[in-house]
Design a protein that fits this description.
Layout lengths: L1 H15 L4 H10 L3 H8 L5 H19 L1
């Protein structure tokens, strides 16, 4: 059960953005902010783009769970 859920989250993150999926995964699984991602992990995008993809991730996840 848990393995399927983990795979689903990983798949949805990849579908959201192939370049940012690792940052999206870290953010949603470790509750990290954009500020942390930018300062510590040097995320390669701006705040607006990140939050656009972040919202898209949860929208796609909602669709996947239906």
């Amino acid at each position: 059960y848990y393995s399927e859920r983990i795979d689903m989250i990983r798949k949805v993150a990849m579908a959201t953005d192939e370049d940012l999926y690792i940052y999206i995964l870290k953010a949603v699984t470790e509750d990290l902010s954009y500020t942390y991602l930018k300062s510590r992990l040097d995320i390669p995008c701006g705040k607006d783009m990140y939050y656009d993809r972040y919202r898209k991730f949860f929208w796609l996840l909602s669709k996947e769970r239906e």
